[in-house]
Amino acid sequence: xxxxxxxxxxxxxxxxxxxxxxxxxxxxxxxxxxxxxxxxxxxxxxxxxxxxxxxxxxxxxxxxx
Length: 65
Hints:
- By secondary structure, the protein is an all-alpha fold.
- The protein is about 50% helix and about 0% strand.
């Protein structure tokens, strides 16, 4: 279960199905250099994304795999 503390690139590498969720929220940063250093919460905040909703949707995508 994701908490928001995970690095964006780690999540995308482990769970490729999360790419669609990040894109849905306008976060195309999984290919960005900053994604290696930013965790999900930091990236979401930088993009003005509702963190709890993003985490919920990411976890849902992982469970549906």
